[in-house]
Amino acid sequence: MGFLDRSRIIAGAGWNRWLIPPAALAIHFSIGQAYAWSVFKIPLEDSLDISGTASALPFQIGILVLGLSAAFGGTLVERKGPRWAMFVSLVAFSTGFLVAALGVATRNYWLVVLGYGGIGGVGLGIGYIAPVSTLMKWFPDRPGMATGTAIMGFGGGALIASPWSTEMLGAFGSDTSGIAKTFLVHGLAYAAFMSLGVVLVRVPPEGWRPAGWTPSDDAAKPLVTTANVSAKNAVRTPQFWLLWIVLCMNVTAGIGILEKAAPMIQDFFQDTDSPVSASAATGFVALLSLANMAGRFVWSSVSDLVGRKNIYRLYLGAGALLYLTIMLEKDSSTALFVASTMVILSFYGGGFATVPAYLKDLFGTYQVGAIHGRLLTAWSVAGVAGPLIVDSIADSAHESGDTGPALYTFSFTLMMGLLVIGFIANELVRPVNPKFHEPEPVQAESASPADTPDPLPAERR
Amino acid sequence: MTDADSPSPDVAKAVSPAVMVVAWLWVAVPFLYGLYQLAEKSSKLFE
């Protein structure tokens, strides 16, 4: 389709690169709704008479399909361009809601799973990687900030969807008819909201670069290359797998807290003079969401200044020390516990948001979206491993009669160990061997000679 | 450059500041709504 072709979205003179972040946010704010799925769990369980495990399945399938579609669709996204990818994401994500609405209306549980998880999951995966390489091409001078903005949107999506979905269920009702109407409105509203991204997104013309910036400015920095590596070659490098370990360890350490936050804080302080109520625990969950989201923007922006390797040293090293602090201080201070976990969650978010820029530093911008898609399989593994570690150890400790912080001592020790493994993997990252670099003509696609005319006037940058 | 490679005429126009404002408001308004709701919920931890 012509409208979706990459050739139709090459920015002309006068285009402003600051229109690309809202285009990306329109997609990521929408697909970030996935993290607010829990709002639908109880209504679905009551109206369809299904278990808690069954009500979680559409979300779990959605995250699984996210990882798979990002991994396998990454190369296609690079070839077809961001408008095509955003459009596919829009269609899949909103169709997923519409099919799920039909499933609820007809009391067909598997249609809900297929719709939200299967079809919607494709929208999640393709939408997640859709704007990443485009943002880095528009902001080669600030790639961490640029991708951090979009990926912050994925964290922020749940902040919007959670209260919005709750209000809609309140208005339409929590029976099958009310849930079906809610899903229907979600499908239509998200299609309209995401269309901004489809309409606005542009790719910079060949050779474009921001005023006053040249690739050689960054090439002087350690680990930053001006060469390019294809996605096929990237997975053959040790750097890719070291970053895979770094991301997997960092995500595992964060997701273990995030997934169990509300019961965890109540368990921790149950034997103290100031136990945490269920209502206060929801406030704790909200603060962790804020830290997760803020970390995505703040830390990835900081990485533009201090370098990617150094920022991961902070995420992994300081993260391990914060886990140690929680274990040593136990239930002595609620404020210390809340502050420490918030910083850990900010590192969790930061890890997600900084990794595309780390990939760009190591492999160039040529197929960074596709490489990023493949790296997200680390998220899928961590998504299973983190909750499994924390839940199974806490259950086992509970059965042994442990209470309070003792329920989590062993799992936190494991998390520290994982972060140390991630720290070591990060230390082992070196520049990619030039034998993996693409030949010169491909390099010219994203790093042009200095005499290439700049089609955008300086004041528009 | 072939015809297929050429940018469409509509993308060659200068971007109006109104487009910039609308684009950012489009994403900022729901985000601020989410932040407000979050602030309300977070305050329960300190009650």
From TrEMBL, chain A:
Domain of life assignment: Bacteria
The Major facilitator superfamily (MFS) profile domain, residue ranges: 1-429
Residues annotated as transmembrane: 18-37, 57-77, 84-103, 109-132, 144-164, 184-203, 240-258, 278-299, 311-328, 334-359, 371-394, 406-425
Pfam family, one: MFS_1
Keyword vocabulary terms for this entry: Membrane, Transmembrane, Transmembrane helix
Keyword Transmembrane helix in record: yes
Comp. bias regions, Pro residues: 452-461
Disordered, as annotated region: 436-461
Keyword field contains Membrane: yes
PANTHER family named in the record: MAJOR FACILITATOR SUPERFAMILY (MFS) PROFILE DOMAIN-CONTAINING PROTEIN-RELATED (PTHR11360:SF317), MONOCARBOXYLATE TRANSPORTER (PTHR11360)
Name of the protein this chain belongs to: OFA family MFS transporter
UniProt organism field: Streptomyces niphimycinicus
TrEMBL record, chain B:
Record organism: Streptomyces niphimycinicus
Keyword terms of this UniProt record: Membrane, Transmembrane, Transmembrane helix
Record protein name field: Uncharacterized protein
Segments traversing the membrane: 15-36
Lineage summary: Bacteria, Bacillati, Actinomycetota, Actinomycetes, Kitasatosporales
